[in-house]
Amino acid sequence: MSGLGQIPILSIILLSPLLGLAVIQLLPRQRASWLKIAAVAATMVPLALTLWLYADYDRQQGAASYSETYNWVQAPLKMNVGGDWFFSFQYEVGLDGLSLPLLLLTAIVTSTAALAAVHVKKRWKSFFSWFLLLEFGMIGAFIARDVFLFFIFFEITLVAMYFLIGVWGYYNRERAADRFLIYNGIGSAIMLIAFIMLVNTAGFHIVETAMNPQYIYSGSYADILRNLSDPGAYVNLPAESAGGNPFALGETKQWAIFILLLVAFGIKLPVFPFHSWMLKVHQEAPPAVVMIHSGILLKLGAYGLMRFGLFLFPDQAREWASVLAILGVINLLYGAILAFRQQEFKLVLAYSSISHMGIVLIGLAAFNEIGMQGALFQLISHGLISALLFLIVGSLYERTGTTELPQLGGLARSMPFISGVLLAAGLASLGLPGLSGFVGEFLSLLGLFESMRWVTAIAVIGIILTAVYVLRSVLKITFGQQREELSAIRDARFIEALPMVVLLACIVLLGCYPSVLTDTMQLSVGGYMDLLLATRAGG
Amino acid sequence: MLPSYLTMGAILFCIGLYGALAKRNAIIVLLSLELMLNGVNLNLVAFSKYGVIPSLTGQLFSIFTITVAAAEAAIAVAILIALFRARGTVLIDAFNRMRR
Amino acid sequence: MDFFAKIAWIIPLLPLAAFLVLMTLGRGFRRAGAWIGSIGALGAFVLSLLVLSERLKPHAIDYSYNFSWISIGEYTLRIGFEITNLTALMLVVVTLVGLLVNIYSAGYMASDERITVFYGYVSLFTFSMLGLVLSDNLLSFYLFWELVGVCSFLLVGFWYARPAARAAAKKAFIVTRIGDAGLLIAILLLFWNMPGHALDFTSIQSIFGGHGGSFTDGITTVIALLIFLGAVGKSGQFPLHVWLPDAMEGPTPISALIHAATMVAAGVFLVARTFSIFEAAPAAMETVAYVGAFTAIFAAVIALAQNDLKRILAYSTISQLGYMMVALGLGTMTGAIFHLFTHAFFKALLFLAAGSVIHAVHTQDIREMGGIGSRMRVTAWTFAIGGLALAGIPPLSGFWSKDAILTAALEHNPLLFGVGLATAFLTALYMTRLFVLVFLGKSGSKAGEAKESPLVMTIPLIALAVLAAIAGFVELPWNGWLSGWLTDEVIEPHGSVAVIGLSIAAGLLGMLAGWLLYGKGIAGSQPLASRLPRMVKLAERKFYIDELYEMVFVKSLRGLGACLAAFDTYVIGGAVKLAGSAAGAAGKLGLRLQNGQVQTYGVAAVLGVVAIAVVVIGRRMLS
Fold this sequence. Notes:
The structure holds 3 protein chains of 3 kinds. By secondary structure, chain A is mainly α. Chain A has helices spanning about 10-25, 30-55, 100-115, 125-145, 145-170, 175-200, 220-230, 250-270, 275-285, 285-310, 315-320, 320-340, 345-365, 370-400, 410-415, 415-430, 435-450, 455-480, 495-510, 515-539, and strands at about 70-75, 85-95, 205, 215-220. Chain B is mostly helical. In chain B, helix 1 packs antiparallel against helix 2 and helix 2 runs antiparallel to helix 3 (about 55-85). Chain B is elongated. Chain B starts with a helix and ends in a 13-residue tail after the last helix. Helix content of chain C is about 75%, strand content about 5%. Chain C has a two-stranded antiparallel ribbon. In chain C, helix 4 runs antiparallel to helix 5 (about 115-135), helix 4 runs antiparallel to helix 20 and helix 15 runs antiparallel to helix 16. In chain C, about 55% of the residues are buried. Chains in contact: A-C, B-C.
């Protein structure tokens, strides 16, 4: 622990982007370089701290090692029953093997995206303000351990993204931003309903004190999880028990909450029919923002699905495992086939994201440790890969003014470095061993194969299709005859090459030595799997 | 006796309501509003005399109402005149600026 | 005793180091490229030789080492390396051919501006191929299997500006990936069915060799067939052979190294490594044999009708790989490995000699060549040795290995023997045609300026020619040293005079026919095309397999894509639009109510009050 218990390290990580935000407010708005340096520096702080945390993470301690809890809102309620009644929402942050890798991913991708923001041409001050607010929201969402805290951070990311897309995007930016906000707004409304239902039932618990018993409606994740998994808790007693039990969460209600959560996070992920908003975002948002969107925010959906959907309602999720698996396969194949058709490279990548998120669902549907690890690994790996790809898209667009495939070609001649990185990223995306994409894909499929052989066999077809569309688009850009008007463009500058190299190095590292990630995730995943197995044994 | 008064009040109120909702001339609408108020006043007075617990409160209250109604009518007419000056009409259809 | 086996993991790392150094240096250091690449290959070769020398002692003990790659709960995925006689042999073959190709390329690629990148890719390939050879389990085998695939892809597409190279590279990767998918499923099946989730070859051998295990015949057959699917993709067997001829768009040294000697043989190596699974599944064995036999004769027929120097050799490679598959299907794993061994040398030789010709005349069309033999003596002679070895003329190496396979075929399956013999005849025929058209006869249109290639290119040719000539002596019909060494058993001599006689006769007849048809020209300048126009056309167009695939797979994928795109736009997009316009319509309705007329609001309020009153009173009256 090395004295970490005293330092609120998570809060420091969380608040450092806000500090950067404050500094940026003090800078003059015309000074682009100052603003950029300040923003990059502000993203470096969480990166450094998270790296240190990752190295220091005490695997044996598990989830509890860094958590912080403060009372945040404690609203007394007037009730006719004796004792003190409260609504209690904590500022409660914590860390486990599920959130730590995602936190690190957030830090890495945001830093590289901040570097990639050299392409931003206007209103730097407000851009970086929103950008840092977005980082604040993402970090918060990953470490929040209270459902309402999570919700608030989740909403912060929506607001920040809305402006980042709507102001700094490409031609149709405002429509894209609107569509983003509407879809995600609906998603988070549904999520809020589910959370309120949860707090009203599973969140209820009684604290015995010397004076009066305290009756608390709590949003704390730990309380909710404990109540749900404890067969003696109020939430699990039948509603008709002695004197009536208003806190009972019957079978129907549990299903309702589970499905609401599935839809809410499914929109974010995105799961097959809810994907159309994401295409617009990929197409219209500025590259630095898409790096974050595709690299992290989609993962937020998967993270929410795991933490709130799967972990809280393991029975429902297990019963729907085949639904999840089939949705995953649909995502995988549907995304791949449509990616094959697109003429716009950004749309190829958008559909490819859908396809890769299908693998996450496949891994989750496996319901064993291998699949769960595979899904998590795929999250991290796809975060890095898509961030890298959109980094390249940004550089490409800056030079050629287009990302339409028919207008590109032969760029390997004038920009060998960027083309090489693009090829490597493409290969990582199609799951080449030695690069990170393979591990997530392989583990997910391996996991699912235990229970659903035929579904997995169909999913393997998706891997062939992935190769088809990735090679088609990447080779279209880099190989072939170079067009006349593209011959004058230059290769990457140092400031562009640096984040590319960093991301690529991470991808190679994870691909060659996945244990660096899987070992960290293992304790949490193993722990949750034990929990899931225990409920199965109990129920 | 009470039902007759109440019926009378209700009839007054309904006539007023109809006028307030259906007439196009703002002056008529104002008059109709007065009619509705008077319907209510009639009720108050009737209850103060023939109610379960007769007391003066009802009559007192109706005095208040009349006062307030007078004040209201004064303000309303003032607004109407201002509107008429601005728009050159007292037809209520013309006053739909709230929509925009 | 097994010192070198223990440090065998260094062997692949040397080319990897070369790759990393070359990638860091970039394009600037042109001369350094060849040196660094060759030194890496040389180091690997020397170490491999030392490993092999250790293995030559009687009863050497297999050495393997592995470590945990991913550990998840009770499951562990391991990777590691293993030294057996088979892997030691393959190590030497790969590093030797790799070294010679490295040296050769210094001349062949000298004028290419990206020579450093070329050497980088070659080194990466050598690393992956060695890793594949050394793997001790299917998982790490699969990792390297994909890596060699990607290296092959990179090198086929090395001249990226050519559209043909781009298409060929893409095709090579995607077609082999279909096979890889099969292998992947096989691995998944094995993982969940093997006791202890072991994937290493030793466990597989002991389980399927009949020491316990819970595999039903059905699953065993499925696993074997899926593994074979992987091999079919990589080794260019029918029906996944289409990528290999196109892969000739790559530089010729690459065709020699990857698409003749090493990578394409990986499929054969895979089947040999997992041979116990096949032995436990007779149906799969038969499939392997028949697919191999069909591929052998099918590709030989196509080779006869092609006019591109390298494509002829490519189809010849496919045909010979088919031969190896036949051997595997007949159960003689050693015969397959023996043929793999000799084929690596003479086919690499043929490709490098062909490269030497192409380097001199700048064309690949054999109709434009002719009469080069007198100007390029070394090339012509070495090519002749390679051709004779391929045609199966004793005492060159190809004869012995082909003989071993034919002997086994005669024992088990006369039909396959007949196919093999016919293929041998065709092989001799097309090789004679090739040699005659390229090196003999009148000077062709482009043959005028041909000069002998520099020493750096001819020395590898001579070295390979020597090997192609003598490599067959490791196993003779009356002395099965190689098979004894590989299987660690005493092998009965299996020679058969009849087979030897028939095999020689087929080879000689083929050569005679070729000489008569193309050398003497007894049947005109287009001997076959004028007699059998349909047949020749069919073979020339490769039996329209590419067109068929284009029709069936590419078109249908495109069609499916179009359907789904329409679905995406109209159904899903339509639903979104519908939701949006529904909200808009609701807004319009509200707007109509909100017309600014206070009276309308009043009416609405009154109606609301009435409605509430009706509900409240109605409920009271009902109850």
